[in-house]
Amino acid sequence: MVYKLYDNQVGKTEDEWRKELTEEQYRILREKGTERAFTGEYDIHFEEGAYHCAGCKTKLFNSGSKFDSGCGWPAFYQTAEGGTVVEKIDRTFGMIRTEVLCGTCGGHLGHVFPDGPADKTGLRYCINSASLNFDSNPD
After folding, report:
1. Catalytic residue at 126?
2. 99 domain residue, yes or no
3. Which of 12, 24, 112, 114 is most open to solvent, judged by the fewest CB atoms within 10 Å of its CB?
4. pLDDT confidence of 102, banded at 50, 70, 90?
5. pTM
């Protein structure tokens, strides 16, 4: 489910973000960076639970929608029920892609592509591990 919300509803300054996030998290979430393929903590991670935004703790994805796409980043075929994810057109690097952001804090998560499991949604949310925190007890 995609909700159109304003970026950075959390209201933190960039200095506050820098103090709360690791360098890698800041580079990805706030500067729209990307981690190298096959290096992220959650690429091959299939425990039961939920994935939350590393910046603001908003629930974004459930483990049940995670799949091994072989792309080198955590992949999900849908967002969590009640999750707040925003999609925006990204025209950087001479490509047209759909960027995925946390709808609560505006943090960059990754991109979504139309090559996910056909028997599910057909979507592949390709997400940076550094933009996520995993909770094995989400309830």
Report:
1. yes
2. yes
3. 114
4. very high
5. 0.90
Q: What is the pLDDT of residue 39?
A: 96
The enclosing domain of 36 has a CATH number of 2.170.150.20
Active-site position among 53, 102, 105, 126: 126
Helix (H, G, I), strand (E, B) or coil at 2: coil
Range of the structural domain that residue 96 is part of: 14-135
Total domains, the chain: 1
SS3 state at 18: helix
- Asked if residue 3 belongs to a domain, the reply is no
